[in-house]
């Protein structure tokens, strides 16, 4: 007796179906993974830019920290140009009297980096206080 049956076994069919299902799930989640990686990269870069801007302000003497707002763009840090529609601002303000209740000489510095991610405005913000006689004074 010759037993050469044609066709596939149930185990072979289930294995192929599992492989196809795995590929479908992988391909369905791939675009979302790319978006998350891009968002994470942009967020990290914006935080690095903001931290570097804070360090630039800390390098100045307290007396040279004039209150005001300054726009930040690629001329301040080339990486801002790598962010989609990237920009930012640096705000230096005198300390709020509710915080500096003993008339301490303190400036509040706020660095904000903005970018547009698929129509959503994202931002990274760092706030610090710099006092007379503080770091590098």
From TrEMBL:
Keyword line: Membrane, Transmembrane, Transmembrane helix
Name the record gives this protein: Prepilin-type N-terminal cleavage/methylation domain-containing protein
Lineage top rank: taxon: Bacteria
Residues annotated as transmembrane: 7-30
